[in-house]
Write the structure tokens for this entry.
Amino acid sequence: MSNTIESHLIETRVFKPSDGFAQRALIPSLDQYRELYQQSIQDPDGFWSKQATELLLWRKKWDTVLKWEAPFAQWFVGGKLNVSENCLDRHLNGPRRNKAAIIWEGEPGEVRTLTYQQLHREVCKFANVLKRNRVQKGDRIIIYMPMCPEAAIAMLACARIGAVHSVVFGGFSSEAIKDRLNDSQAKLVITADGGYRRGAIVPLKKNVDEALKDNTLVERVIVFRRANNEIAITEGRDVWWHREMEYVDPQCEPEALDSEDPLYILYTSGSTGKPKGILHTTGGYLLGVTITSKYIFDLHEDDLYWCSADIGWVTGHSYVVYGPLSNGATTFMYEGAPNWPELDRFWKLIEKYAITVFYTAPTAIRAFIRWGDSYPKGHDLSSLRLLGTVGEPINPEAWIWYHTVIGGGRCPIVDTWWQTETGGIMITPLPGAIPTKPGSATLPFFGVDAAVVDETGKEVPPNVGGKLIIRRPWPSMLRTIWGDEARYEKQYWSDFPGYYFTGDGARRDEDGYFWIVGRIDDVLNVAGHRLGTSEIESALVSHPSVAEAAVVGRPDELKGQAVVAFVTLKQGTTALPELRDQLRQHVATMIGAIARPDDVRFAEALPKTRSGKIMRRLLKEIAAGGKVTGDTTTLEDLNVLAALRGSDE
Ligand code: 7RM
């Protein structure tokens, strides 16, 4: 039996960019995409050299575009630049000076706008605050903040002086902060008293205090006053952001940094439970996020761009802060939850600010569908011209809903595949050039040599599933796992020597389009058939009663693995026993008997990470009847697990 992944659910709808959209687009035709892609693959040094010159401001030009000593890459070797200067200073000498850089709305409803000039001033001042508190180039700084402009200011201020930030998502516990403090050996923490989430205050400072209990390295905690909740102050260690800002100068020269100087570490949960610190550096990362933001979101001067990701996730780094600001765009930030105070908050924001480009996650889209069409339909969403998704495969039903109900049938959708490790988007439509197919991330971005291979590293034929790899280095790639080069090598470069293994399963169709079928670790093996999780989940979600589904394997004596589906239902649907059989039959009809779930378990909610990814690893343990043993620090809501264990059957 072959080791490839089978595919049974074939989606045939194709959506071409409209003439109107294409005419205005920065890359207006498939031919133009193909030409640039060819160039980027045939002469990568020439291509990236040209892009780096055109898109970024350098203090000193590089000597060598790429130094590749597999698996270690250095980009723009010898070049000097500063990320904060690229995101701010270079926009001040022209009409962008008084353009909004950030428009922010807090969950309770306050509004703030920072122009490029104002943001620059705040960043310079805060960079001086960091210096005043003895931060030096190369020092690690933990940022644990709500979604507010000061989070971006803190990141940019670190970048300005060459300090290495590590943003910890504001929804994580003190345990998670502790792990990251230890691993990064940070000496300063930037936080806030609290942040708003669903009307309640998240006690950020309290969590930091907890995490710092036996810590001997952290000398300073800078606290931004956001929620006015009461906090404890440790004299000699804790200082207020606003007080510190009173003492400093509004001028701060950006440090000319080496292209390979570290910009940030971002931790992702590894399978062993020990967090992996993904390291990104300066020149290559900035070029990667700048060029992808520009062409994938087709940024025009008058756009109001909203990526709803939290800054604690890589999407927040690359596509809320660095990518848009480097392009001189206006980035919109919202502090709180999509269902507060009502289920229409996002649509209210889009209408109120006339958002033009909206980028969110499939998990959010499935929640919107579950809540019902009346919420978006009650708002004027006609300002939107482009939609995007990231984080998981989007099932075709959700794609069509997004396209119709949110996009009014007129907005292209960019389904962008990438990872914390890749730094920027890798496989994606270009909205004016590449026809889309619901559920496919379509084609590789410039310079990305992606392939689907079997165990031996050989490319598989069209429509046969395999492992997704990248066959050459790209500018925004991770450089290592912080403090663990051996793990870096083993994790990403050992399955297929010389090639980067993504950990994802995928297939390419007859047009070369990529269809991501989920994490390889989640692939099922049912009676010798290897099935990706995403197709069975898509089939389930295409049933009118189902809101969301997660499919896992359970050890089975006869078949190797039995298919277990965890399903949440749309609002107003009851979990009748006959529905269980209907859903099993539905999958058999859509895909084939081989994929028919042995068990369908109804749940109130599925366990997810804070960025909305379903944690199938935990469901697997539950399906097998065992206890959940692995790392749960990235789980959004621990109660979900308890409820699942107690759920019917
Ligand atoms: C940006 C981000 C990475 C993993 C990745 C995939 C999955 C992300 C898509 C997707 C299908 C997509 N970083 N993934 N985007 N799967 N289609 N458009 O998500 O490090 O948190 O996760 O997410 O499995 O490997 S991440």
Summary: The CA atoms of residues 352 and 516 lie 35 Å apart.
